[in-house]
Design a protein that fits this description.
The complex is a heterodimer of chains A (214) and B (225). Chain A is α/β, with parallel strands linked by helices and 214 residues long. Helices cover 33% and strands 28% of the residues of chain A. Chain A contains seven helices and ten strands. Chain B has 225 residues and is mostly helical. Chain B contains eight helices and no strands. Chain B has helices at 2-19, 21-41, 44-75, 79-85, 90-120, 129-154, 160-187, 198-224. In chain B, helix 3 packs antiparallel against helix 7 and helix 6 runs antiparallel to helix 7. The chains are: A alpha/beta (214), B mainly alpha (225).
Chain lengths: 214, 225
């Protein structure tokens, strides 16, 4: 079985609102899957379910063969989530942020240097405090933290948001390289043209359910 | 767990060093509290008598700001969520944040004791130094542990700025009492014997260990809620 992410009849309720209403999805290892759909369709909730942040009211979610509810910590150690917030420390520099998140996963400084270079965050920019960066540079820093953590499944919510054209190109190159190296990418994006070119498969999320293309 | 604790403590202390919030805002506030007490009481003999209690009261008030600040850096851009999703050991996060908070509180206690000597004419005796240092270390460890636990509890709550002092003040009351009594004994305030202070140090150490253990176990489930 080479499924990296599997949702079976997944129902998630936020307050009294059913954000996922029986979603079924299988993503194979090494795939880049684009979740597309209108605002409020359940894309973000689906990603948060996979990260073990939103519990299911019904159904089952598994990541890398592990049931998310039963093995939440083990799943979290192998996934990386880039949500709407960047999860960065404003007073620390780009390098210090990436160093910190890499160190939490046991990665070394050599790897950090390589990640910074790959995402165009090396040189003078690496020593600038995050609070002084533009929105796009912060997003790239957040992505660098994710890459440095060596996640096997990348869950990305609007990763292109705030990036300029060059930043988007670098992001796409990074995701393609990660997938080629065996990582699985699940992303929600409203940058449909770009994300569709990047993705190996597109699925539509509508009213909390997943529709596979015909 | 200890590797994560070291990383988190170093990160928190570096953030505080860069932002200077403690030195530029919390320390002046704590000193101001000492000065205001001096204005309010205004009799040297009374100030000398109550100096230990006033010092620890100022520490407790300042602690509210330090704890708020320690968790504001985690919640402002979703870093606490990111720590959860990254599967970073929550016990390590708790211990790291508590250690950083303890270092800040210890610096504050030293400064306020110097302030009490200058403003209230409190006297630090050489033979009371060991008791004073032990009491201060135990008290700051307890305050840091309970502060981190309650900081985590209120981090995602609405109105956390007012909720935290409301929840924390009653819980740290035993530390306030025990630290004030132990400090009185160390300074020999109103003829208190040195030996009277050690049982209070026992209370402080028990409090620190209890909340250290509870925090290490409960911090993960707390930040999940």
């Amino acid at each position: 079985m080479d499924a990296a992410v599997e949702l079976c009849d997944a129902v998630a309720v936020l307050g009294s609102y059913p954000a996922l209403a029986g979603a079924d999805l299988t993503v194979r290892r090494g795939e880049i899957v684009l979740l597309q759909g209108p605002n409020g369709a359940g894309k973000t909730t689906l990603l948060r379910v996979c990260a073990g942040l939103v519990p299911l009211a019904r159904g089952r979610a598994s990541v890398l063969g592990l049931d998310v509810a039963a093995h939440r910590d083990a799943v979290r150690a192998r996934v990386g989530l880039l949500g709407h917030a960047n999860g960065l420390y404003q007073e620390l520099t780009v390098r210090e942020n990436v160093d910190f998140w890499a160190a939490t996963a046991g990665a070394g400084t050599d790897e950090v240097a390589s990640v910074l270079e790959r995402l165009g965050l090396d040189g003078r920019l690496a020593d600038v405090a995050v609070s002084r960066l533009s929105a796009g540079q912060r997003r790239r820093t957040a992505l660098a933290c994710l890459v440095a953590r060596r996640a096997e499944v990348w869950l990305l919510d609007e990763p292109h948001a705030g990036l300029d054209a060059a930043g988007r190109d670098r992001l796409d190159e990074t995701l393609t390289a990660a997938a080629a190296a065996g990582a699985t990418v699940l992303l929600a994006s409203h940058e449909l043209d770009r994300a569709t070119r990047l993705a190996t498969r597109v699925v539509e999320v509508v009213a909390g359910t997943v529709r596979q293309p015909s | 767990m200890w590797r994560v604790a070291r990383l988190v403590a170093a990160k928190d202390l570096r953030i505080e060093w860069r932002s200077r919030v403690v030195t530029n805002q919390v320390v002046p506030f704590a000193v101001l509290v000492l000065v205001m007490f001096a204005f309010a009481l205004d009799v040297e003999s009374v100030l000398q008598r109550v100096a230990p209690g006033l010092v620890w009261l100022a520490v407790m008030f300042s602690q509210f700001f330090l704890v708020q600040r320690a968790f504001a850096v985690e919640t402002s851009d979703g870093a606490l969520d990111a720590l959860r999703v990254a599967g970073v050991d929550p016990a390590g996060v708790f211990l790291g944040k508590a250690l950083a908070l303890m270092a800040q509180l210890a610096s504050l206690v030293i400064l306020l004791l110097v302030g009490a000597v200058l403003l209230y004419r409190a006297e630090i005796r050489a033979d009371g130094l060991v008791l004073l240092v032990t009491a201060a270390c135990s008290a700051t460890a307890g305050l840091a542990a309970v502060g981190t636990l309650y900081g985590g509890l209120t981090a995602g709550a609405k109105g956390r700025e007012t909720l935290l002092p409301l929840l924390l003040a009653p819980v740290v009351a035993p530390v306030l009492i025990a630290a004030a009594r132990a400090t009185e004994a160390a300074l020999g305030t109103a003829g208190t014997a040195l030996g009277d202070g050690w049982p209070w140090v026992g209370v402080l150490a028990t409090f620190a260990v209890a909340f250290g253990v509870v925090g290490t176990v409960a911090f993960g489930p707390l930040i999940e809620e």
